[in-house]
Each structure stands twice: as C-alpha cells, then as structure tokens.
Amino acid sequence: MYSSFIPPRHVKIGDAAAFVGTTPRAIRHYHEIGLLPEPERGSDDRRRYGYEDMIRLLWIRKMADAGIALDDVRDAFADTAPAGADSDHDVASILERLEETLVAQEAELRRQRTAVQRMRTEGSRMGLLSDFVTSRLKSLPEGSLRQADLDNLLVIERIFGPLGAAVNATRYIALATDPGLREESDRVDAAEEALDDTIAVDDPRVAQVAAERHAFELALHAVIEDSGLAQSDDALFDSWDALHPATADEGTNEAGQATGRGHESMSAFEATGKMPYGFSPARLRCMQLAEELAAHESRRAVG
Predict the structure, then answer these.
(1) pTM for this one?
(2) Which DSSP letter does residue 129 get?
(3) Which residues on neighbouring strands pair with residue 252, listed in sequence order?
(4) What is the rounded distance in angstroms from the CA atom of residue 296 to the CA atom of residue 101?
(5) Which residues 6+ apart lie within 8 Å of 278 measured at CB?
(6) How much is the pLDDT for 80?
(7) From CA 248, how far away is CA 231, in angstroms rounded?
C-alpha cells in the first residue's frame, strides 16, 4: 500500500535548519562566506532548498561538529568535481591538520589542569607560577611569602623565564626565613618609595638611600651564602638542563629561557619599556647609584 504522503521538492530555510540540526542564522552565514551556494527563491522571494542543498548542509554540519573550521570546510567543497578520490584526499588533509591542532590543544589543556591543581594544592597564587619556581618555594612556612614577593616573581618569570625566577626566589626565601633581614628590607624599600617626584635627583637623600640599598644587598648576599642557598642555586641550573636539554635548533638565551618554548620571550631591555613602574627621577637615580656601588664592590673584590 502506497503512502499518500508526497515529500516536497524544496523546503524553506526554517525546515532545512530544523532537519539538519542548526539554525537559519547559521545557514545564512554559510551563504555569506561562500560555503553554501545561494539556492533558488520562490515566488515569495524566500530561499528554497532542494535535495543536493540538504546533503551539503548535512556534510557541513558533520564536519563542523568534528571541529573543522568553516574556512577549511569551504576549501574541501571548493572543488566542483564529483565526490571521489580527489575530494576525499582534500578532506583527509584537513582532518590531518585538525588532529595536529587537537593534539596541541590537549597538551595545553593538560598544562592548564596541572596549573589549576597546583594552585588548589598550594592554596594561593603561588600555584600559578611555573612548577620549577613553585617547587623552589614549597619548603617555606605557610604565609611566610608576601603577595608582593609573588608579584615580583611573576614579573621576573615573564621576563627571564622559570629558571630566572627560580634563581631569584632565593632572595625571597632568605627574607621569609630571616625576620631581621625582612625588617631591614622593609625599611630600605620604604626609604626608596619616599624618593617621590618632590625629591630632586641631586638631593643628598638620594645618595644616602643608594648606600643603604647597597649595604642591604651585601647583607642579603652574606645570608644567602651562609645559609647554603647559593649552593641550591647552582643545583637549579643542573636541574633545568636535565629537564630542558637544548637541541641543535634550540638553545637558551641570555635570560635562561629555552628558545621556542612557552610564551614568547623578551629581553630585559624590551621589558623595561613595556612594564610600567612609575619610578620618580630621584628613585631612578638612586637605583643607578646603587648599581654603581655594586659594580665598584665587584671590581674591588676581583682586584
């Protein structure tokens, strides 16, 4: 017995979208980007979709669901030849590129999940620093690191990479474990911050604070040497080299960053022009004088 139902030769965009499992807006977008040719229009000037249009829409939906970009879907349909070996080869090439992209995305998701797990374990923003840096700080008593310490390590890691930040973490380990040193650090920091825009660069206080900064850095260095932290720093370089062996095409730059890995690196000079600090001329002069004192001390030690 034959059914009395007679399928339509063409359907409107709403029916086409409902059958394919998409929306009229999406189909209109397909037309706009050249993915789907404009179909015939009825007497009411509305689009009408036939069997071939629906087949193409179904393939588009399947490929989009698989994660293939619409531009790649369009390329796959660009060849007007009948479906066959050539067109299948085009789709296979697109799928190969897609798989490579998905593999990279999976690796990135694993990295993100590891970072989130570290942050949950550490219970602070410290977990968002590289694992190489976080592992350097794990032995510290809870709450001994300040937010400003983590902020500084975050900036250092961005400029000099995980190895540079891990080495600089030694400073904050010493401060966190020596209350007297931390107190003196706070005093010198406050003196530097007081060198605001109201202080002239040749004000005697500038040179005085520079001398205090130099004296503090010498004291900090002595604590690091006496505590054995300096030897731990030496071991960091060996650990880094073991975890990130350089290849023929990959070396490490002057900041200790492996080239071609992670976020795009930048030189310290470039970073200075991109990271705002708002230091006054007096404070910048103080920093310069402290560096000159350190250089003089270094030359005297060598001589």
Answers:
(1) 0.60
(2) S
(3) 258
(4) 53
(5) none
(6) 43
(7) 30
